[in-house]
Amino acid sequence: MPDHIGWRLWQASRAWQAEFAAAMRVAGHGWFTEARAALLGHIPRVGTRQSTLIDRSAISKQAVQQLLDGLETEGVLERLPDPKDGRSKLVRYTHKGLDALRDGDRIKLQIEQDYIARLGQQRFAALMDALRALDARQAGAIDREAGV
């Protein structure tokens, strides 16, 4: 297999996700898995409609439902009727979920500090700049394709 940027980005992303999930479990969030993290990443701290979450997550409605069921059982999220639309549900974090987000923020900074120690401040800053540039270019391309 050729050594290419996509492969390297994917490997780095998978390593980061695994390290983050393991640290979250060590921090006392035994319910935390990479699959659940993928869904939680689409839920703003103020919450969102379940239908919006299904659209954002790009996974099936059934899979979102199962993940939400588990997170609700664990006490991380709650689903409430949407006062603006009785057919819709709002998904929001409980106190336990917000505590996990705060721990997640702390762990992300710890992982970043480890990366800085491994790469050095200059190389880490260059990596962040390069990733931002790639992301900005991709976002612009998606906007152009959508006619925005």
Question: Can you offer a commentary on this structure?
Answer:
- By secondary structure, this protein is mainly alpha-helical.
- The chain is built from 6 helices and 3 strands.
- The chain has helices spanning 5-26, 34-40, 50-57, 61-73, 95-119, 121-145, and strands at residues 48-49, 77-82, 85-93.
- A 3-stranded antiparallel beta sheet has the order 1-3-2.
- A hairpin with a 2-residue loop joins β2 and β3.
- α1 (5-26) packs across α5 and α5 crosses α6.
Element layout with pairings:
Layout: H1 5-26, H2 34-40, E1 48-49, H3 50-57, H4 61-73, E2 77-82, E3 85-93, H5 95-119, H6 121-145
Antiparallel strand pairs: 1-3, 2-3
Helix pairs in contact: 1-5, 5-6
List the main descriptive attributes of the protein structure presented here.
148 residues; mainly alpha; 3-stranded antiparallel sheet; 6 helices; 68% helix
Low-confidence stretches: none
User: Mean pLDDT across all residues, rounded?
Assistant: 91
Which range does the strand content fall in?
A: 5-15%
Over all CA atoms, what is the radius of gyration?
18 Å
Shape: globular
Question: N-to-C terminal Cα separation, in Å?
Answer: 37 Å
The structural class is: mainly alpha
Biggest sheet statistics = 3 strands, antiparallel
Number of alpha- plus pi-helical segments: 6
Give the ordered list of helices and strands.
Answer: HHEHHEEHH
> Helix coverage percent of residues?
55-70%
Number of strands: 3
Strand order of the largest sheet: 1-3-2
